[in-house]
## 1
Amino acid sequence: MPQSLSQALLINHLIGGEAAQTASGRTGPVWNPATGQQIAEVNFASVEDVDHTVAVAKAAFPAWRATSLSRRAEIMFKFRGLIDENRDRLAEVISTENGKTLADARGELARGLENVEFACGIPALLKGSYSEQSSTGVDVYQLRQPLGVVAGITPFNFPAMVPLWMLTNALACGNTFVLKPSEKVPSASLLLADLAHQAGLPNGVLNVVQGDRVAVDRLLAHPDVKAVSFVGSTPIARYIYETATRNGKRVQALGGAKNHMLVLPDADVEAAADAAISAGYGAAGQRCMAISVIVAVGAVADPLVAAIRKRIPKIKIGPGLEAGSEMGPLVTREQRDRVAGILASAESEGATLAVDGRDEAAASREGFFLGASLVDNAAPGMRCYDEEIFGPVLTVVRAKTYAEGLKLINENPYGNGTAIFTQNGGAARQFQFDVEAGMVGINVPIPVPVSYYSFGGWKSSLFGDLHMYGPEGIQFYTRSKVVTSRWPDPGTSKVDLGFPQVR
Ligand code: NAD
């Protein structure tokens, strides 16, 4: 990857298996967050570019849909092998554009690969059901068929994993796909699409259009786009859901999060502190499943805050590509400055800035770095509690009882992930029963479901009915058809104008 604009790249779309430039003449900058340098320009699709891409995907649909399940599974197997062989290359591209460490980029690839593995089982996943003799001589059966052209719109924070959440199942089900990756991290999607083509995917079945709101709005309005999968922030998720459903599309739009970790007085303090550090500062807090708020119940608060404080100086902050770095920069300068602003407001609103990451940031680095911060004594009504921060900040709220902590979580507008730390099985079970969130960890701080379950939050963390990937992903990318069939003995045929009966 070039490090300076003098060597800048122009990143293209991939339409019908070929690199394509935009007709719009509009481009956007791509940054290396670790150096603070612009490293490329990315083409921004025009309405015409999107129309052309959707037309290509539509033309590819009949043949792809007719492709046997065994062949689709075979392509997925090959795709899995190629991603596996290219892990280093993919991880480097992810780290360069997103800023996360190489180890973290490899981690997201591993979780993305799980989704390819799931899609390899597509022949079994698409099995329908069959009822013989529903009426005399009549059989009833259900099929699942693909929708047509479907679109995926993805965020910056998982440049490979989130596209893989969507496109693996969509393609395996027989749909053709238009992917609009985040303009901040455009390259990983192109690499994945290239590998899919090497695996044998026919041209036009998977297309990548780069761009911004212009491309998104056209996808939301285009009559030939049958469904939209979105992952990103809550205001945009809501907009995508409202706009695309108004246009008659099936939509799953996953939004932002404010994940709470409830730590009961009986929890193992050292283990809880390790988990909080890993889940709060991994990827510099830029994971939708990152722990953002620690709800410390009763007497656990002081020792827990002390244990977290003790660990923070040991976190190795540095460029993602540098060996040994544990936490990279934030994705953009604006985001770094926004998080710094939230830290300033925390102090002025009465919280305690137990560790201030702005000191580290100011130190020496050129990129968009911010050190890990710990805000204690936070409360609803403060910006650091109310907003999704999406940076390396852990916020501690002190609660007197389990009930008080639970109320806080359930009253939060987000409901993506949550976790409880305790040694009491009964308390954990009660939490699982009570809590209003889509993904729950019991002594597991980042409970991202494995690929054969489905991923999704509640409340403002998901708009739509079906969660992403896994069994619900298969449901989302197919529609069901029920056939009632009679192959009578010709000798029994007669006219009967009564309503069909089954008994
Ligand atoms: P974002 O909402 O800014 O962007 C997501 C996508 O929407 C991008 O492709 C972007 O180009 C497009 N977009 C942005 N503004 C738009 C507009 N006005 N109109 C139409 N399209 C627009 O999100 P981001 O900053 O890339 O990602 C971070 C956010 O994503 C966080 O809020 C995080 O919690 C969330 N996220 C959620 C999950 C989840 O599973 N719930 C997973 C990852 C990230």
## 2
Amino acid sequence: MEPVTTLEDRVVVRNYLGAGDERALADDVLDGLTRPFKELPPKHFYDAAGADLFDRICEQPEYYPTRTERAILVERSAEIAALTGASELVELGSGTAVKTRILLQAMADAGTLERYVPIDVTEGMVRDVAEQLVEEHPGLAVHGIVGDFERHLQHVPEPDGPRIVAFLGGTLGNFTPGSRRRFLRQLAKLLRPQDFLLLGTDLVKDPAIIEAAYDDAAGVTAAFNRNVLKVVNAELDADFDPEAFEHVAFYDHEREWLEMRLRASRKMSVHIGALGLDIDFAPREELRTEISAKFTPERLRDDLAAAGLELAELLTDTDRMFALSLSRPR
Ligand code: AVJ
């Protein structure tokens, strides 16, 4: 009898998130809100409501990164598949894998596709994507990792063939310059000489275009920004009044990054029950919630080089709004 492979045989999902993970928010809030300049890391935007708001941001006419990156992928995926000869795709922050499907299809068309390794913090998302993709691609194996790509990269399985590690969407821009290079070095460790890093980065451009992308007319980004306060309220029993904070988005020329802040409209005191902590805001005091770095090709090359990587291809749209880069160990 022929051995029968069921869909289940081709899907493995491992969850590395543990009890300690609620602490991550508590620690970040304790640390970030007691600093002289208040700050919260952007990863806490993404509860279910935040993820929905982010999806809606991607549909706003002002928010160019998502559709531009997708267009580059549509245009160049066949070339990426051919150039890398990759049989496996490891993806950080895979989400609903909308863009990834384009690349996986190109790898399937090239006849090389064997395995997809999505990494995401939302278990349901990893499972759904895994099940859909094995149905779409006969022979594809999916090894899903539910975890934080800043902490769980050691659980990425040994490579099975030539590999692409993909970090799309411009999320590298959330790192400050020093930690950005440190993180790129972590990614470089997943690569052997024949492997490639596929990185999506937003590019330096007219600040008015960037600022509009982070302050859309429909107010979706403003709602997304305030959502982080709702996350803190829900998870840490706090009493932020999100509507008392104004959405601020500005491009910092010197640092070449977009910065989002929440500005207190009045003096207030916020109680954070789970931490037994009271935080005071002065009128107009600002809380930084995100930086989103924009790159020049030169700076990208330098950051990659600092991580021991060499730029092989820089793929951009005709307006040079966004870049996909392929790099490999030097
Ligand atoms: C998901 C980090 C790439 O920086 O453009 C969108 C997040 N913040 N609008 C970005 C975001 C406000 C986004 N990244």
## 3
Amino acid sequence: MQRKNFLSKDYVFPGVWQKYQDVYVESVAEPEEYFGELAKQALYWKKLWNKYFDYDPPIHRFFVGGLTNYTYLLDLYDKTWRKDKIAFYWEDELGNTRSLSYHELFREVNRFAQVLKNIGVKKGDRVGIYMPMVPEALVAIYAIHRVGALHVIVFSGFGAEGLASRLDDSKSKLLVTADGTLRRGRFLELKRTADSAIEKATSIEKVIVFKRWKGETDMKKDRDFWWHELMDQIPNTTYVEPEWLEANDPVYIMYTSGTAGKPKGIVDTSAKLVWLYANMLWAFDLNYENRKRDTWFFTGDIGWAGGMWFTVYTTVFFGLSSVFYEGAPDYPKPDKFWELVEKYKATVFYTSPTVFRLFMTYGDEWVRKHDLSSLRTIGSVGEPLNAEAWNWAYDVVGNKKIPIIDTYGQTETLLTVLPPYSIDKIPLKPGSATFQVPGVEAAVLDEHGQPARSGEKGLLVYKIPFKAPSIFLTVWGDVEKFGEKNWKGENEFVNSAYYNVFKGFFYTSDAAMKDKDDYIWMLGRADDTLKIAGHRIGTAEIENAFLFHPAVGAAMVVGKSDTLRGEVAVSFIVLKPENNPSAELAEELRKTVRKALGAFSVIDRIYFVKRIPMNRSGKVMRRLGRALVGGMPLGDTSTLDDPTAVEELQTAIKNKGY
Ligand code: ATP
Ligand code: MG
């Protein structure tokens, strides 16, 4: 990489790239110094580590021998001015509000930790969380961490099947849930769903139920307990000493989104939390001044990695005030999020591309009627942020004044490509997540494992061993089934999925490209690539081309095998309001795509639908579309957000489309 001045019109926020390269070089040359310093900033260490790094392939360990507990940060804050600061501003879709100061949070976490101890929860036990976005969910998560148990957060929108499989896979013994939650004005009975899940997840011995509503709930004697009754028995002054955890002791299991197939139970440690601290510091410039004044708003649910990291763990790491919203982005009206930003004067708004694209279809006036001038940064994570959505967020939400920070990562490795803004105000290019972060040695390889040329599409990998604590400890099933290793001395699943694909590298399964300035462009999932008459093209590229047409709100493209061309593209299109499906419009859309991508990019069929299938973290589930057009079984659908989306695709296919 060479240092450059970026002043050309390709860049937004033109500036000089000065320090990033030096910091990057230092981080890979001297990872111990660089990340050791960050670890000391991030956490309180009861005992410092005696070894920075230990590699027993494929297991990486960092800060070996160090003792810490993340929740001790609450103890530290309680001795400072921060104790009176609001940690969470909670609001639901009806506009009810509550808030929790750092002192209140500290007290509640200690009380619930005592409840857990009384029930017999011990270090290493797994505890399921099936809770709506209410403050008690946060209290439960921190308290479980405090006593050294592993939280297994399961999205509250999942049905009994999705919940049961995660509780059973993790062999959780306690479940913390609520009687229900409101979603789009409808009451969802979580406890009832939990009851049927527990019939299958037989490891669950006890259930704690938070009463969110006034209605009746069936409670099973000696198994089910009310949250408030247990908490009422614990004095407000109760103190539970944190369980001091070795830096590589597991702290939670978080299941991946299940976009490609069956969700994987990623096991993380305190060392990986240091990485989260570093990620957020880099991307959002969380220096000491910003930490004092920021009001943070990450919009994702705590039931997926993003919500857990960027709300639960980020808030306390930096002592921020966070907006914590229980409800849908566009309910009761399409400006609910903007209302929250304005009301709480949010400074950082961090969301997913799906959310931007949703708001793009509603029209700018819903955004423009709010004063969003408190914002200093907008972030995005979860899917490629296409240039149109980037520019929309920049123009309409940020009023052309603030950076749009696209952050790329996976449950497995957390964030690895992002604009490292606390290091350098590097220039941004709409549509690129910019650079590999310090400590990560990312490369783009072709199918044969050779480095791709700049500008050439390839697959994103990281050199192993990792030098920084970005990598998970293991996948839950592996350790459970095989102990640390199987009979061949290998960690079976972890090896086959991640380490044995390209020798010497960790494989992300994502397509990427590095441009001439070393900016990384994420091009979608590797399995979402089509080969049309010998040309490789990402489905996301075709989708982005559709989005150039003003009538298109959202697009999903999948491949279908074709005897003549190998594969052809089939598309599902959601139109913006006031546009109607017609053969003429379909023809116009085909032209738009051809113009953007060239003559080979033939669109075989266009189906107009009202919604496309997404999972709970807002990712398009192309594999379901692929299965339907190919007449294959659907596979695991437990992470699907709205099951009617699949029925809609089925009907559209039956009606033959255009
Ligand atoms: P599964 O692994 O179960 O199939 P998943 O990969 O969707 O599900 P996550 O770990 O939640 O589960 O998501 C990580 C994936 O999300 C990445 O591999 C990538 O495909 C996509 N992703 C996340 N952030 C970005 C981003 N900023 N740009 C492009 N892609 C992103
Ligand atoms: Mg994945």
